[in-house]
Amino acid sequence: MKKTTFALALGISQLSMPAFAHEGHGLGGTHWHATDVLGFVVVAALLALAIYFGKK
């Protein structure tokens, strides 16, 4: 039973491997979208909160 579940999960996870986006995304890309920038802002805010609350 566990082997079947693992094999099924592994097979399904392979469906997400290919990325069908146009060229230019990411830090080294030629342009960014608002959602790309928003993701970096959220990560920076979470990092700042972790540092702030981690010092107490």
Topology, please?
Blueprint: H1 2-13, H2 34-54
Order of helices and strands: HH
Mean pLDDT: 75
Q: What's the Cα radius of gyration?
A: 18 Å
Number of helices: 2
Largest sheet: none
Low-pLDDT stretches are none
Count every beta strand, where a strand is a DSSP E run of 2 or more residues.
0
Description:
The protein is mainly α. It has a domain at 32-56. It has helices at 2-13, 34-54. The longest helix has 21 residues, at 34-54. The radius of gyration is 18 Å and the shape is flat.
Which descriptors would you attach to this protein?
flat, 2 helices, single chain, mainly alpha, 56 residues, 0% strand
Brief overview:
The chain is mainly α and 56 residues long.
